[in-house]
């Protein structure tokens, strides 16, 4: 036996087709099919934007993994170099050079990751912006039709 929804007593199976549901409300000057189509386009745009954002997240995660692997390899190499025989002065000079190189590499990696995130965000925002522009154009057409019918 199906359990009743505790929040409302409506059989939601009646509303599976939104256009049929909306057509029951016979509002003059409202094109239900156009409204449903517009909402479907909105959902498609949001889905595409989410997909782009997720792909961007994956690209950033992959690059972070690569950077971590490279850093571990470089650290191992650096430790080996510092443990090699040599005078304390040579080791201090070598250590200073290695710190400088490591800092520059970390800065470049940070810049690269920031650019990846920015690109991903921009691509996702472009999809949404395009849909908003299309939606406004669709609204202009609907308003023009309503004015023309009066």
TrEMBL record:
Top-rank lineage group of the source organism: Bacteria
Domain Phasin: 33-132
InterPro entries for the chain: Phasin (IPR018968), Phasin_subfam-1 (IPR010127)
Protein name: Phasin
Source organism of this protein record: Skermanella stibiiresistens SB22
């Amino acid at each position: 036996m199906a359990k009743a929804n505790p929040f409302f007593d409506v059989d939601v199976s009646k509303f599976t087709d939104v256009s049929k549901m909306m057509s029951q409300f016979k509002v003059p000057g409202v094109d239900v099919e156009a409204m449903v189509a517009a909402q479907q386009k909105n959902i498609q745009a949001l889905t595409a934007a989410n997909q782009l954002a997720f792909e961007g997240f994956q690209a950033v995660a992959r690059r972070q993994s690569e950077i971590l692997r490279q850093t571990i390899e470089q650290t191992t190499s650096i430790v080996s170099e510092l443990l090699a025989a040599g005078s304390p002065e040579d080791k201090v000079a070598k250590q200073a050079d290695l710190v400088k190189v490591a800092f520059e590499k970390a800065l470049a990696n940070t810049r690269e990751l920031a650019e990846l995130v920015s690109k991903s965000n921009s691509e996702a925002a472009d999809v949404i912006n395009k849909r908003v522009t299309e939606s406004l154009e669709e609204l202009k057409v609907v308003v023009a039709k309503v004015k023309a019918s009066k």
